[in-house]
Amino acid sequence: MTYCAGILVQDGLVMIADTRTNAGLDDISTFRKLHIFSWPGDRSFGLATAGNLSITQSVISFLHEGLPHPETGEIETLRNATTMFRAAQLVGRCIRHVREIDGPALDEAGVKFEMSMLFGGQIKGQPMRLFMIYGAGNFIECGIDAPFLQIGEHKYGKPILDRAVTFKTHLYDALKVGLISMDSTMRSNLGVGLPIDLLVMRRDAEDLELNRRIEAGEPYFHDLRERWSAALRAAHMAIPRPPYGPSSP
Amino acid sequence: MTYCAGILVQDGLVMIADTRTNAGLDDISTFRKLHIFSWPGDRSFGLATAGNLSITQSVISFLHEGLPHPETGEIETLRNATTMFRAAQLVGRCIRHVREIDGPALDEAGVKFEMSMLFGGQIKGQPMRLFMIYGAGNFIECGIDAPFLQIGEHKYGKPILDRAVTFKTHLYDALKVGLISMDSTMRSNLGVGLPIDLLVMRRDAEDLELNRRIEAGEPYFHDLRERWSAALRAAHMAIPRPPYGPSSP
């Protein structure tokens, strides 16, 4: 499994991804799923991946090599895409290209073409944007009403995002809530695990403000997990017991 | 969708179920999914259902009518089942019976035979037990290490159960945590909604201590939702922001 979340708030973008992959429960490895494409001062992008690792890694390789534009024949890359929308389309085209190459053999082998991606970032002078891109290469964009997107094992970590994140949330509070969301997911699904990769991009910086890996035992994340557990315990214990009983209406 | 949880603690059993059913997003209704079979002082059972409503309702009808025992030919019902294990087997046989009758036509119509049930209760002088019964009529039993089982849309509400419920949890704290779990699910999935049905059975009472429906606006549940929201907000706000930044290691 995998869990990745992208949060787009007023001050910038947070992306978080775990690193656990498994082919069955008995074959667990660590692979980076949060990829960075950055030309500081001009443009920076984060790309988080979920699903079949052979597919998503091939997509990443095509993004590095570029694809010929279907009409002009010129090699298109994230470096020369003119807008975030075009850049997201390029990611989608790379996905479709991998499907053309590998799809038939995967079909024959009974392997589904399953994958999804979060793609966020900013090109100088243009808006910062965050997209969720599907296996067919189509995509949706994050809006300000629900300023986050998730891929992979998303349900365990969604309630806290639903409750705690708005467009006006402080950038590092968004990171904090993203880490709480990751913690909830890790506790309920062993297929999601440490280390965690994260990035923070401040709006209009066109650069990464933070690009970090949280390993097991990292003091802040350890403390966050302990505090959150203790606070949840205190929270449910502070709620009175139901007044219902044999004699209640 | 549906969300049902059963919690089996030292002092007894809690079962909770929502009542929303939907055939598509534009056809939403209220149906009871928590069914009670009770002969006070001798035996009481709760049965919560998820999945295709035509299947689960047919199973309930067969449970009321009874099925001939495959060897003796005698009509077996929940009233005369000799143990909780036999009673759970009877539920499984009713499921298989419905599959025999309706399965081929459902297959032809492309409708999957999807359903699951929670079945809990106690027969006088025997242990209280809680089972999760699958669409094939097989089942698993709740143990003391993870003293709860869930069916339906279970992921949103699992983290709080994972954290807050142990076998020694007070019976009405278990009910409270079950309601928090239901609240988390309702917030994240519109397919799960009020009213909520619940029951509480105290161990060795062989009767229902509580059999109640929570409607919209019910004061305790309303207050629980408000308090839980406020406590979560306070909890994540009390955690310090990540100390990471451009200059951090």
Task: Give an overview in words.
The longest helix of chain A has 25 residues. In chain A, 33% of the residues lie in helices and 30% in strands. Chain A has a single domain, classed as Aminohydrolase, N-terminal nucleophile (Ntn) domain (Glutamine Phosphoribosylpyrophosphate, subunit 1, domain 1, 4-Layer Sandwich), CATH 3.60.20. Chain A is globular and about 75 Å long. At the A-B interface, helix 3, helix 4, strand 14 and helix 5 of A face helix 3, helix 4 and helix 5 of B.
Keywords:
Ntn_hydrolases_N (chains A, B); Glutamine Phosphoribosylpyrophosphate, subunit 1, domain 1; five-stranded antiparallel beta sheet; alpha+beta; homodimer; Peptidase (chains A, B); 249 residues
Write a brief caption for the model.
Chains A, B: This is Peptidase. Chain A is an alpha+beta fold and 249 residues long.
What proportion strand of chain A?
25-35%
Q: Which structural class fits the helix and strand makeup of chain A?
A: alpha+beta
Number of contiguous helices of chain A: 5
What's the Cα radius of gyration of chain A?
A: 20 Å
Shape of chain A: globular
